[in-house]
Predict the 3D structure of the following.
Amino acid sequence: MKQGLGKGYLRLFVRAAVFLLVLYLVFTRVLFLGRVTGMEMYPSLKDGDLALGYRLEREYRTGDVIVYEAGGALHFGRVAVKEKENTGEETLSVQQDYQTDPEDSPDGDEVPRKQVKGRIMTILRRRGL
């Protein structure tokens, strides 16, 4: 009877390990969960929100909210225009929703495609928790 109990615990451990491995792979290769800092995308995204994104997006459309890396930090922005440079490298023109500086470019910032981490699928408001 003790052997059957040991096999049951081993099976449980293997299933839990496989589940955790799948969860790890999903959140490191397919999805990402990031915390919004700052008010650059207010009112769409607010400081403290959790953003769930999809890393494997191949085509971005005008109006998609994306997350990209610039200056060692993650930034959120809305795709304004998709362009190709002379070098053949695709860039995205990205705007923030909350623009307070009158000198902000109406065309947005140019972000190389390789710096884009993914498209935001949904946000989770977490204030007050």
Remarks:
- DSSP finds one helix and seven strands in the chain.
- The helical segments are 2-30.
- The mean pLDDT is 83.
